[in-house]
Amino acid sequence: MKDSEIIDTKGTITPLGEKLSQLYQDMPDVVWEIIWINLSYNSPLIKWFVNNINVGTVFSKKILQSIYEEQYSEGYTTFKYSLPFLLFTNSVTLFPLP
Known about the structure:
This protein has 98 residues and is mainly alpha-helical. It has helices at 15-23, 28-42, 44-52, 61-71, 76-87, and strands at 58-60, 91-93. Helix content is 57%, strand content 6%. α2 packs across α3 (44-52) and α4 packs antiparallel against α5 (76-87). The longest helix is centred in the middle third of the chain and has 15 residues, at 28-42. It starts with 14 loop residues before the first helix and ends in a 5-residue tail after the last strand.
């Protein structure tokens, strides 16, 4: 939540978080786009993901872990435990936004 700039370091909702909360009912796609943009700048895991994984390609968690491990031995444990939350399933397919 901090990396998406919805809350600050004290856990307080930010002005952006308040605005996104207001917009979510009518424009959930826009809210998620803003969240992903902020994560791609602020979260090392998401930044790696968007810069290294091609749109439209299917990967299993195991393959993503392998790709990441080849590039970064440091921080691999954090990546390994964070990856399931990024994917929500055993595989992921990325598609460009309409």
